[in-house]
């Protein structure tokens, strides 16, 4: 049944305008980060690592939270605009599975976004003329952990979109969450705040410091949050009149 729900979600998104945001929005922070890097070469001397800090400065706290907010709002808005909830929820399908299908769909979109962000990072580094080899293993880790942290954010945003039927307001909340994530990460609490975990996992503050993020505890925290908000979202879907 879950596979059928996922197939339905994929069909809804096949010709969706959300893919325009997917393509364009990561390009903007990559461009800004590259310009910032080239303008501060006297200070930023760690090549690929310095370039990553500049890219993620804009990506993790501003553009990617907005993009995740757009993903989640759009996924929920599809049902609200076309009165699909009435047809969907009369089907013999547990509402928890409906929530899970939307979270998995958002998660796949986040994973694709991280791959695109990684590709833009490599392209930017080559255009900047960086002589060292790209840090491939670190990049895979940053993008994988960023995806995991992004899924936590998506789980929160889907719960918010159950309460708030507006498209724009949840996106604004996601943007505010990204700003709050910056503040809490600076104070050393990035590993416990849901909106900080993506930036924390991507090591946007100091990627050149080995083992800045401990893989095991980080994964446990993210999985714990995902389970918590999945349960919360499923309960909300079961009890709230949609």
Quick take:
By secondary structure, the protein is an all-alpha fold. The protein has helices at 2-13, 18-24, 27-38, 48-81, 84-89, 95-127, 136-163, 168-186, 197-201, 215-239.
Could you characterize what this model shows?
By secondary structure, the protein is mostly helical. The protein has one domain (2-239). Helix content is 75%, strand content 0%. It has ten helices and no strands. Helix 7 (136-163) packs across helix 8 (168-186). The longest helix is centred in the first third of the chain and has 34 residues, at 48-81. The relative contact order is 0.15. Mean pLDDT is 85; it is low at 207-211.
Biggest sheet record:
none
**Quaternary structure type:** single chain
The number of domains: 1
- The number of distinct helices, counting runs of at least 4 residues, comes to 10
Residue-averaged pLDDT, rounded?
A: 85
Coarse structural class = mainly alpha
Number of E strands:
0
How large is the radius of gyration? 18 Å
H and E order: HHHHHHHHHH
Percent in helix: over 70%
Distance between the termini: 21 Å
Uncertain runs: 207-211
Strand residue content: under 5%
Shape: elongated
